[in-house]
Amino acid sequence: MAPRANWKGFLRLSLVTCPVALYPATSESEKVSFNQLNRKTGHRIKYAKVDADTGEEVANEDIVKGYKVDDDTFIEVSREELENVALESTRTIEIDEFVDRSEIDPRYLIRPYYLCPDGKVGHDAFAVIRETIREMNKVAIGRVVLTNREHIIALEPFDKGVMGTLLRYPYEVRSAGEYFDDIQDVKVTKDMLDLARHIVNQKAAHFEPDRFQDQYETALIDLINRKRAGKPIAAKERPRGENVVDLMDALRKSIGGEKAAQAAKPARKPRKAASGQKEMLMPIAGKKPAKEAAAKKPAARPQRKSA
User: Fold this and answer.
1) Which of 87, 156, 221, 301 is deepest in the core (most CB within 10 A)?
2) pTM value > 0.90
3) pLDDT per position as a tens digit, 170-197
4) 3 state SS of 139
5) 178 with 165: CB under 8 angstroms?
6) What is the DSSP-derived secondary structure letter of residue 113?
7) CA-based nearest residue to 18, from 161, 165, 153, 167
8) How far is CA 234 from the centre of its chain?
9) Where are the alpha helices (DSSP H) in the chain?
């Protein structure tokens, strides 16, 4: 089933316009999630909205938003007043300017979206805008209204489509000075840099996301499967960190450890990454087992496949 678009409208570059749809490029719905239960009854916990002073439950129609001025003072804002200040969606992503990708501070990046042509018409105009941005090796900066708020969006070609990344406003980004000012100025010797550079060269690789495995997610799946099967749960010993006494000695030992690890590392073929709970030994109650998992013979220990 195709994902549902978060937004539909038009992409405009000067007089060139095409209908587009905006889809979320990431998802966390495949991760294991928990409900809160009453330990005594096993029933789910339901939250009620109550008055902080009287303790009485408040009906939804009696709840209004309020801005806190001080501990005892709030400025009430009605739904109608919020609707009056809310930006009306123009249903158009207007490209305002083009910038170099290197000029966008990574702190301003929020979340990625996929931008695709909407419907059978507009593919030509979409291709013109996409290939112009690609040819110029630039990132297009535009504005889009989502949930009554205007957001800055950075657009860049991605495969056959366009990736749009929402950006933060300057007031949302904290200054690094208040965190880094107390860091001491340390002079690093050439010998230390040479040793550290050697370690980096030994660990040099290409970024391949499929090689990474969510170990916590795998451990959660294993925990749930073991509990459903009635198997004992043993506590694992936590690794202990060691204080660095001699930095040069630690760097030398690191080089020796990396050489040994590289020599003992077996060659592995890339494994196709799996998502969701497709390889759980037994399905979690309330969730349908995936077709892919049903076709496979249950393994003794579930694992997320990753290269």
Assistant:
1) 221
2) no
3) 999 999 998 999 999 989 899 889 988 9
4) strand
5) no
6) E
7) 161
8) 31
9) 79-85, 123-136, 177-180, 190-202, 215-228, 247-264, 291-294
